[in-house]
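Spend some time on this chain, tokens included, and walk me through the fold:

. . .
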Amino acid sequence: MRAQLGDQLVVESPATGATRRDGEIVGLHHEDGTPPYDVRWSDSDEVTLVFPGPDAHIRHLEHGPGNAREPSRPRTDQAGGQRSGGSRGTPSGRPPNPGDIGRRVATERRRRGLTREETARRAGMAPAYLAYVEERPSSPTTASLINLADALGTTVVALRGGGADVPPGQGQALLHPQLLDLGPDDCRALLSTHGVGRVAVSTPGGPAVVPVNYEVVDDAIAFRTAPDSVPAAAVGSEVAFEVDHVDEAMSEGWSVLVVGPAQVVTEPDEVRKLVGRAHTEPWAGGGREMWVSIRPTRVTGRRITPAER
């Protein structure tokens, strides 16, 4: 069995001879076109590593210049309707929504000045599949990642986002970055409803900055802690609260700073309100039933983006 990129792998039912499943071959692992193959199945858009069995055969498509590729058959969804049969690129009408691996691949490719076509050729995969990886959340096979890493001169660990225990921001800076001040509405949107932020407090041992799980309730920042904890030192003073995000793959990021007085929440109805709206238990665990509220008097933010945006 030999195949080229873009051919279809068709798996038949041994009993009836009817097509059971088919998909586009988007990755080769041997130069002579022998198995295994990376196959993007037409019924799920998922890519898996396939070692074809005796009930499978290759449907060869035209690959010469000027020859239109044969589209795959229309796909039936669970409701009995049909979806578009085209298998090239990302689903039509859907804006790019890349996963972390896709963003890292695209960024490394651009840094090296490579086109998708050249990168796909080096990695032994279809350009349409590389576009899919870069633009949609995907889980490429280990073999595909090895080929991509080799084509891009990097490692599989780097493409997978290895180094989770390494402080963020060790990547290269943008060639032409710009630092933008954010308005109040943008800052509130980035704060959103909840997440993990950092509160800066003064303690008997000196200044301290600690992470806390927070909630945004009626424009106030609220977090749970224990009475004898470091975050509890915020009560009764003006504190700084910061939330940020660093996009390692894109060398971009933002931060929002909230300044205001902090006080413990003692009113039972307010406490019940906070408990009812809480999205998660404190990640640190333990008995953390003391709610602290920060009423913002100043909210500022900044974002790093490419200058051309």
